[in-house]
Here is the input.
Amino acid sequence: MPERRTKRFSLEVRSVTANAVHDDVFKVQRYLMRFGYLHGPFEPKRLDVPTQQALRLLQGRANISQTGVIDPPTVAILEMPRCGVPDLFIPGGTSEAYSLRGCSFEAIYRTLLYAFVVDTPDMAGSDEKQAIRNAFATWQNEIPIDFAEVGMANNPNFSIGWFTGDHGDGAPFDGVGNVVAHAFFPPPCGGTHAGKCHFDDAENWGTSFAGGRTDVETVALHEFGHLLGLKHSTVNGAIMFPFINGMQRALAQDDIQGIQAIYGKRGPALEVLVHLAGIADLSFRENEFAGTRGQARRLEGFQLEISPAVAGLSMRYMAHLQGIGDVPFVNEGQFIGTRGEARRLEGFAIELTGTAAANYRVAYMAHLQGTGDTGVCYDGQFCGTRGEARRVEGILVRVEPK
Here is the structure.
């Protein structure tokens, strides 16, 4: 293992005025380039106009005065431990609260798998693994996705490890401070490294920030937001704020709104049963894809049930069957469609009923033969086709609180 650096990233000066020249300005310029603020030509070591403009973007994201020069509040931000994921992905990127990367695991998985690749020697026993489990559980509490720990042989969605220096992903670590970790977005946005989360093992890791250590759970909570598709937030106090300023064990409202904008809210549990031609009945859960994609297995019928029951909430659903037409709505717990009669299911709709229905919405989608996944439909919208010879091969259903 490479020798650990003992000196943190720091600047010799506390202030540099506009157009002044100093060696530390070049360190700042490299920082600004790395994290997406500085683009195009600039004069190295001079606090020139492009560098001033980039500093204002950084200062705005950090919620400090946008002076465009190096001053004590800006130095404090520059020297702060932070995530290695760039804050801005395009020149002049906008300032925003929670930000979506545009890629996610929605409508693909009900359970996402993670595995450990390399542990850190800093922590006794399995303390770092428990911190990772805690961080995944915090995100899981807010969205209809579960996380399960497996081995690397199980083809996990996420891999977790501690590395130093250049570790093969194109984003080498810088030793002790200021980048403590980075993570790659879901496919395809994350490229060939999608789903990887790396911690800089040059840091001194622990279960808190006491004694000069870096808290695994706080950092993991941030990085897992990236794994799920969130970019950095401008909200100071949000876990997706790029700068780390003390221990954090909970998501802020900004984080929750962001992740639920991608995956929806965790709602009542569902039992989903589907009948696939040539396979028979199969059981699934809410937000879990039920069926096949492109395997020429038609879905002939399905059955839904809220289980355990929620007071005042129930559902009903209808379907369109080839050669039969629309089958009227049936109540939850009843099978709709056929079994082994070569009648393909071409579309369906689901509605919530009961006194508590106004507090929830039902979301659902389908995979159509030769067409692919439909968009997400809500609350009684028809999903699929009528008489277009496009059979439904699989469905996904979830109920969300409003």
Remarks:
- The longest strand covers residues 392-401.
